[in-house]
Amino acid sequence: MIPTRIAVIQGDPRARVDLAVGALAPRLISRDAARAHIALAAAGMILLGGDDVHVDVSVGAGCLLEIEDVGGTIAYRADGRRSSWTMEVHVAEGATLLWRGLPFVATDGADVERRTTLHLATGATAVIRETLVLGRHGESGGRLASSFVAGDADGPLLVEQLDLDGLAPEPGVLGAHRVLDSVIALGFEPETTRGDLVLEHSGAIARHLGAETHTSRLDRVWDEWVKRARQRTASHVDKPANEAAVGGN
Fold first, then answer.
1. 113 near 84, Cβ under 8 Å?
2. Are 74 and 44 contacting, i.e. CB atoms less than 8 angstroms apart?
């Protein structure tokens, strides 16, 4: 499949935003000189067995890029063919990425590999919401191998690998739960509470395990951590954003 591409660099009077439609269709909502707000939706039916979705994101120096999913993703029955979902993200010096993902659901019979890789330059920050769900309501769920790797110039910040199978639950992983909701902050120190994981370098992870997505406590965490991240780029986000034509530069 053709890669989906999102890139933003500072401009005057408006940032330059480059969008390329692949399996996903990015749409420009608003922008100003150093900020862009992008909505991301499926361009067709995904994920089917054998689908290979690739998303390439680049945030230019000093920019703030906000991405929001318009609809969640459902990985359907694979019929023996594995599908893949790969996100490659580069956040330049002093830039910030805010990406609020909606639930990623592996239905019965699905076999999907999900890979997220983040490269953060000096002074870069990111807050990402990731919600993994085994099965739709009443289902056990399929197979989902998920990796999340983030690093900066000094080395790794976070390296995780999670292998899930709704038909063969792993003790000590999800247990009887089917929803793993996460908010991941990198490049700064958010305000944490008991149970959050504080990383060795600047960053933290808040997690929720549950039977349904609506029981998660992480909406509040997302709002608070995003607010903290925005404060680091206040000189950009305090300016009123100009409405832009959908998909335009």
1. yes
2. no
Tell me the pTM.
0.89
CB count, 10 Å around CB of 13? 8
Amino acid at 83: S
Token readout for 248 is 């335009």
Tell me the pLDDT tens digit for each residue of 75-91: 998 888 899 999 999 99
Q: Are strands 155-165 and 203-210 parallel, antiparallel or unpaired?
A: unpaired
What are 104's two structure tokens? 């990623």
Residue 60 DSSP class: -
Q: Is-contact 78 47, C-beta < 8 A? A: no
Six-digit token pair at 211? Answer: 């039977």
Instruction: Give the count of alpha carbons within 13 A of 1, CB side only.
Output: 28
Q: How many angstroms separate the CA atoms of 227 and 102, rounded?
A: 19
CB 44 within 8 A of CB 23: yes
* Rounded Cα distance, 12 and 31, in Å: 11
CA distance 3 to 91: 18
pLDDT, tens digit, 9 for 90 and up, residues 92-151? 999 999 999 999 999 999 999 999 999 999 999 999 999 999 988 888 889 999 999 999
The DSSP code sequence of 167-213 is TSPPTTTTTT--EEEEEEEESS-----TTPEEPSSSEEEEEEEESSG
Q: Which residues pair with 18 in a beta bridge?
A: 7
